[in-house]
């Protein structure tokens, strides 16, 4: 490489100087000297041409048979090249690790909640077995149940019904009196429960339970059965219920309210009493898109509402290979395939005096 650091004129002078010291002086324009000078210039030009066309540096000291390819230098340099670092922090990482600084998703636990006034027969009870089979097929984690009458209503009878249709480990709260009491059944621990007064009704109240669901927040569940007589009376009942909720339920806890509301339309004026407290974003339907829940499937009697804290955690309800984006109104007469909801019979929802359909939703609760 040192040849390239000198001007060509200096190289010529050096050559001339060397010739003068090796013997008698030779005339610059004599033939022998001209031939030698021309040969050396050609050699120098050839060397320059080789360097300009990418020939390895003759002074690098690396042998031609080292086995290294031109790519080996690129691979070595890539470990320190600026492009190897990620743009948002320079941490790099494998392709499947995600961008540096990404926050991992918060784990969740999905819970299934059903509103169920599923009595049949002449006694407004679950003794006929139709409602029990529906609950067994739907596999809820929490049941907001109405007309909670089973056998002689003893704890043995009620626990036997729950174990037979939902499994072991469930807890329940049932109003201690009333002709058609409300109640809550839960797979998760019930840490507190009771009833709030419905001053317009003489045979049931508002049943509630505070449930220790997975995650840092408790879930308050309210099971209600509003009057059938007039929308104006349901308006007063809802006003009374909302007052109880605001007085008792902490702002930070989750809340679900559901059951038999006996409403004649989805926009009945009485429901405006829930504005600012409960969401009406997701309205479940059956597989045919019908959201009505009375026996004739013409009125939206039964509803399941989440408060504004719980609603964002709503997720599609999955049954078998199907997913129901807003939740499901279950009618055994139209649901297919029934093999996904064993042991339900096709005519269970059409049983004598079965006046309501089950309404079910799912929520994915954060469990960090």
Explain how this protein is built.
This protein has 368 residues and is of the alpha+beta class. The chain has two domains: 1-58, no CATH class; 108-366, Deoxyribonuclease I, Chain A (4-Layer Sandwich). Helices cover 23% and strands 21% of the residues. The protein has six helices and 15 strands. The chain has helices spanning 8-21, 31-52, 70-78, 130-138, 155-165, 231-248; strands at 108-116, 142-145, 171-174, 183-186, 190-196, 206-211, 219-225, 254-260, 278-279, 302-307, 314-315, 317-319, 322-324, 328-330, 358-366. Strands 1, 2, 3, 4, 11, 14 and 15 form a seven-stranded mixed β-sheet that branches. A six-stranded mixed β-sheet has the order 5-6-7-8-10-9, with no helix packed on it. A two-stranded antiparallel ribbon has the order 12-13. Strand 7, helix 6 (231-248) and strand 8 (254-260) form a beta-alpha-beta unit. Helix 4 (130-138) packs across helix 5. It starts with 7 loop residues before the first helix and ends with a strand. Residues 1-36 and 55-98 have low confidence and may be disordered.
CATH topology of the largest domain: Deoxyribonuclease I, Chain A
The percent range for helix content is 10-25%
Radius of gyration from CA coordinates: 42 Å
Q: Which architecture name of the largest domain does CATH use? A: 4-Layer Sandwich
The CATH first-level class of the largest domain comes to: Alpha Beta
Return the average pLDDT rounded to an integer.
82
The run of helices and strands is HHHEHEHEEEEEHEEEEEEEE
**What portion of residues belong to β-strands?**
15-25%
């Amino acid at each position: 490489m040192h040849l390239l650091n000198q001007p060509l004129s200096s190289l010529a002078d050096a050559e001339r100087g060397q010739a003068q010291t090796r013997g008698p002086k030779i005339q610059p324009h004599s033939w022998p000297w001209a031939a030698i000078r021309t040969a050396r210039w050609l050699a120098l030009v050839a060397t320059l041409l080789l360097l300009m066309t990418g020939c390895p540096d003759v002074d690098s000291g690396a042998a031609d048979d080292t086995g290294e390819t031109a790519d080996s230098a690129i691979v070595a340099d890539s470990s320190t090249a600026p492009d190897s670092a990620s743009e948002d922090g320079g941490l790099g990482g494998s392709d499947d690790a995600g961008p540096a600084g990404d926050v991992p998703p918060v784990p969740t636990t999905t819970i299934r909640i059903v509103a169920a006034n599923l009595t049949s027969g002449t006694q407004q009870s679950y003794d006929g077995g139709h409602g029990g089979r529906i609950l067994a097929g739907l596999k809820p984690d929490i049941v907001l149940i109405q007309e909670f009458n089973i056998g002689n209503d003893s704890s043995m009878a009620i626990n036997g019904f729950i174990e037979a249709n939902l499994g072991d480990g469930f807890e329940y709260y049932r109003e201690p009196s009333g002709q058609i009491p409300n109640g809550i059944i839960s797979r998760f621990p019930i840490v507190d429960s009771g009833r709030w007064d419905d001053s317009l009704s003489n045979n049931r109240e508002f049943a509630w339970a505070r449930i220790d669901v997975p995650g840092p927040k408790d879930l308050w569940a309210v099971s209600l059965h509003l009057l059938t007589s007039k929308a104006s009376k349901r308006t007063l009942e809802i006003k009374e219920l909302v007052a109880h909720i605001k007085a008792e339920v902490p702002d930070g806890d989750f809340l679900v309210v559901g059951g038999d509301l006996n409403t004649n339309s989805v926009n009945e004026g009485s429901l405006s009493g829930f504005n600012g407290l409960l969401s009406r974003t997701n309205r479940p339907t059956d597989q045919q898109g019908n959201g009505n829940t009375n026996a004739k499937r013409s009125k939206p009697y039964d509803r399941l509402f989440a408060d504004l804290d719980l609603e964002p955690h709503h997720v599609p309800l999955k049954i078998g290979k199907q997913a129901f984006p807003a939740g499901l109104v279950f009618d055994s007469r139209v649901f297919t395939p029934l093999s996904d909801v064993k042991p339900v019979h096709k005519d269970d929802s059409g049983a004598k005096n079965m006046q309501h359909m089950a309404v079910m939703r799912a929520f994915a609760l954060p469990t960090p």
